[in-house]
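>> received
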Amino acid sequence: MKPSRIAIFASGSGTNAENIINYSRSTPDSGLEVALVVSNRPDARVIERSRRLGVPVKVMTRAEINDPDVMLPTLDDARVDAIALAGFLLMIPDFLLERYPGRIINIHPSLLPKYGGKGMYGHHIHEAVVAAGETETGITIHHVSRKCDGGSIIFQTAIPVAQGSTAADVETAIHALERIHYPRVLAATLSNQGE
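>> returned
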């Protein structure tokens, strides 16, 4: 089976990106090869993490990401088959959705449709979960669509939120779920699409 060559789009610390890279290299027949990491933030820690692992990195402005004459050749040069979002905070432009139908996947740190949409990312989600007194939360892995956090759900898993939990407690538990599930579900989803 030819592995799917993926680009990881990330805006932050890069823990999920690093996890996907390590999974692709350490898991026999993972079906994934990380060809490129794209970040819209020149100060994002994902850049250092990816370079340390020997993965090519491209730092691009929002305007460059939204310009098909810049973005598409960048992905074509890396022979990218699919895109994984890992803490990427920009909307994906329509031309990428058209180029990679069903092959742009995101992970969201809540049980969508709860706590999705504009402004709902990272610690903001965990704070909202705690403030609402939720008894459970989790992760959602989903296809990316034109609607923010609105694509079809591929996988969800939940964990309890113990009484007295802080947002930091919830974040730690969510990161553990992401490490366990995102690379595996990503690999299974892309391999099921004929790669």
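>> The chain has one domain: 4-191.
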